[in-house]
């Protein structure tokens, strides 16, 4: 992927939406090919998400992605108000984009972009992630819920990260236990390449085995299995996830409106105890 610095100007697509639709719009713009997004509050209580594109974005594609994202998040199409486009100078956006990425502290972990200077405490574990390339920069509730659950429940041994994105969860596991045996997969080959590069940048590249694809009943089992996917992806593979788990299973990417469905499916798969944690409208199940 091109880094923002390579371009002299960018096409900024401004989308004004209800604050509740913020995540859905950010997701849709990334799916439509934006290389990054910046979100601000605007005057009338609306949220403005700006997507930065290298080339003029195709409005029909953006509209289709917005429609799909709103559907996934169960939001009415009226939650998106307006789209406007402008051409902007590289420097403006690069600076604003960099400023929009502040380090995030989650338990012992500090997730930070490569350019921020940090003075961590001795017990803190720093994870450097280049933002805007794949899902998993530490700002999303589901990633945060998973990191908290990993810190609480992972006691070393084997670890399997299903849907690794930037590799953040696998890298976190490697930082917690340097002797851990970690595997991570993603159906998106670009995500796997990014995750591998992030693992190397975090000096845990030789601890994690990455592969492109998903899991099946013949995949390696693990003491801790983590799957931060969406409920519609998790549900059909729930039995496989449970089968591959020797110790604990962490599931997220689930909206609180979907919790009953997931917990019922877990009961059907033979699981009796499920611990549910919540952040905003997102939940995480630990089995
Ligand atoms: N683990 C990261 C990223 C989660 S986003 C975090 O917690 O922040 C979910 C990722 O799962 C995406 O990168 C997507 O490409 C991948 N994915 C979607 N369906 C999948 C499947 N069936 N098997 C494996 N990966 C999948």
Describe how the helices and strands are arranged.
Elements: E1 9-17, H1 22-31, E2 36-41, E3 47-53, H2 59-72, E4 80-89, H3 90-99, E5 104-106, E6 109-112, E7 125-128, H4 141-153, E8 158-162, H5 168-176, E9 181-186, H6 189-201, E10 208-212, E11 222-228, H7 231-234, H8 238-244, E12 245-255, H9 259-268, E13 275-279, E14 282-286
Parallel strand pairs: 6-7, 8-9, 8-11, 9-10, 11-12
Antiparallel strand pairs: 1-3, 1-4, 2-3, 5-6, 12-14, 13-14
Helix pairs in contact: 1-2, 4-5
Characterise this structure.
The structure is a single chain. Strands 10-9-8-11-12-14-13 form a 7-stranded mixed β-sheet, with helices on both faces. Strands 2-3-1-4 form a 4-stranded antiparallel β-sheet. The two termini are 37 Å apart. The protein is globular and about 50 Å long. It is 31% helix and 30% strand. The model has no long low-confidence stretch (mean pLDDT 90). Strand 9 (181-186), helix 6 and strand 10 form a beta-alpha-beta unit. Helix 1 (22-31) packs across helix 2 (59-72) and helix 4 runs parallel beside helix 5 (168-176). It is an alpha/beta fold and 287 residues long. It contains 9 helices and 14 strands. The structure holds S-adenosyl-L-homocysteine. Residues 134-136, 143, 146, 162-165, 168-169, 185-188, 191, 214, 228-229, 233 line the site of S-adenosyl-L-homocysteine.
Q: What are the defining features of this structure?
A:
single chain; 287 residues; alpha/beta; seven-stranded mixed beta sheet; globular; binds S-adenosyl-L-homocysteine
